[in-house]
Specification:
Order of helices and strands: HEEH
Strand content: 5-15%
InterPro entries: MST-like
Helix content: 55-70%
Mean pLDDT: 79
Number of helices: 2
Protein name: DUF664 domain-containing protein
Strand order of the largest sheet: 1-2
Number of domains: 1
């Protein structure tokens, strides 16, 4: 039950971030498009690092 509640709370937080553009537990950080490009790039690099060798979709995304 706690896991399900946390999952829904996380979804609500994502929606709030999309609406007001502010991130963080207290919403104190304003996130501009540059911030999000850097975040996506960092997460994608981590995902690519752990992708299995020989994976048909192993091409890095741009």
């Amino acid at each position: 039950m706690a896991g399900e509640t946390a999952r829904h709370a996380g979804h609500a937080d994502i929606i709030r971030e999309l609406i007001d553009g502010r991130i963080g537990a207290d919403g104190s950080v304003a996130a501009d498009p540059t911030f999000w490009r850097e975040q996506v790039s960092e997460v994608q690099a981590a995902a690519d690092h752990f992708r299995p060798v020989g994976d048909a979709e192993a091409q890095p995304r741009s």
